[in-house]
Protein: MFS transporter
Amino acid sequence: MPLETPNTGPATSAVPPTPSGFAPLRIPLFRDRWIASTISSVGTWMQDTAGTWFMTSLTTSPLLIALMQTAASLPVLILGLLAGATADIFDRRKLLIFWQAWMLGSVSILAVLTFLGYVSPWTLLALTFMLNIGSAMNNPAWQAIIPELVPRELIPDTVSLNSASNNLARAVGPALGGLMVAAFKRIDSGAGSVFLLNAASYAAVIWVLVNWKRIPLFKSTLPSERIAASIRSGLRYVRYSPELRSSLVRTFTFTFFLSAIWALLAVVASHVLHQGALGYGILNGSLGVGALVGATSLPRIRRRFSADRIIAAATLYNVVTLLILAFAHIPWLIIIALILSGFAWTSTLSTLNTSVQLAVPAWVQARALGTYLMTFQGGMALGSVLWGALAEHTSTPISLATAAAGLVITLPIVSRFHILQGPVPDHTPYQWKRPAPQPLPALESEPADDLNFAGPVRISVEYTVPAENYAEFTHAIHQLRGVRLRDGALRWGIYREATNPEHLNETFVMESWLDYLRSRERVTAADEAIRERVRALHRGPEPPRTTHQIYAKEITHPNP
Structure:
């Protein structure tokens, strides 16, 4: 089945990259999205600071304070795959409007209850959790629309600009949140005002989405996958994509140990440095200042250093930051350390986010991003619980020092998982480049009208390979194995005929005929290059012979 003609709008228009890294902002659609996102992110960071500081007024427990970070991170851990699957199945614009409205409603309820004085520590945690359910379901679709707004070659700069947006908000949002809370005599009045302002910030994003006339890059002519099947196919792609797995391993390790900074910064500010809400906002904002500088500098850094070196340097510096937070109780030194830590933080995560976006084709992009966000927030949520509990049962310095030791110990292990090595694969759907649609095999009946086609389908490809090509062929065919499995095959094998070693048979099994048709749509230009290498090693008067077998179900006949 051929795909529809790709959209030739902003996502495929030629906007030459520039050394400044600001080229994506020349595209009106992306610029509007970026401005709206920045406004909303400022509100989010104000809320994060006000909410965490509000919790310190409700309880002195380091664990409950650290659980604010868990409440923000856990929904992504639980819902990341579901969010990615829905974003790959349904209209992303409508999904985004719904979840932005959900977040607006959740934070509005929290604001009203705060003003009325009905918020307990567990109420605050529950409503923070509800707010972040919306964020978890929103984020994969929000990031997956990037290729619809900018050309693929601008994705690294786009990721950096998105990081700059978030970190600009992180730089000013916490300080504004702390200042707004401090401006009121009562903490609950200040926090409630911040919550109400954050609710209004979501309206800016909804306005942009309502006015966006979306044209998808392409649509399949086949029926959409069911949600459960979509999740399975997304997990299958992750399993058989080494580049994506490497990015996820590095993401989890980095965020798990670095979550100690985010989880315990409020404890350091209030219990160690004896600062108020404004002081905590300044510390939090220091991370944002450094992150903003890192995001704007990253395009130049990326051209000078490899991704692996950027991540290693950032990891080692954050070991120093954790030790400073643990043992150096000097505010100006901590502020400088946090600024540099923010620089290292955003350099690492922008690099990892870029690696995920470039590692996958469009059909599975939201699921891959959902998995990435789930891994990111999973590290944050699990780490926050561990470091908060450790601080409560021992001390804050011991917890921070233990996180620093964990970074040092795991760095040599995770360094084997390389990031952004070699040329970027061409994930353009091969159907777009095919001179004519590939014909479907002739069938005895229409699959839609025959229940037998709902069962497994076995595809068999026969090759003739001379002995001198055998080693090269087996290497190429095992690369093709990854393509088949990523695109939906349940099982794969290559077999050599016992009586004629030059005859080889490749077989793979799809869940249904419909899944087989989907796998044909999913073939990218990079995948086709692997298939061509395999076919080039075949020798014979005709191309490799392909046959399709439908699972033969047992049919019982009634007795006469």
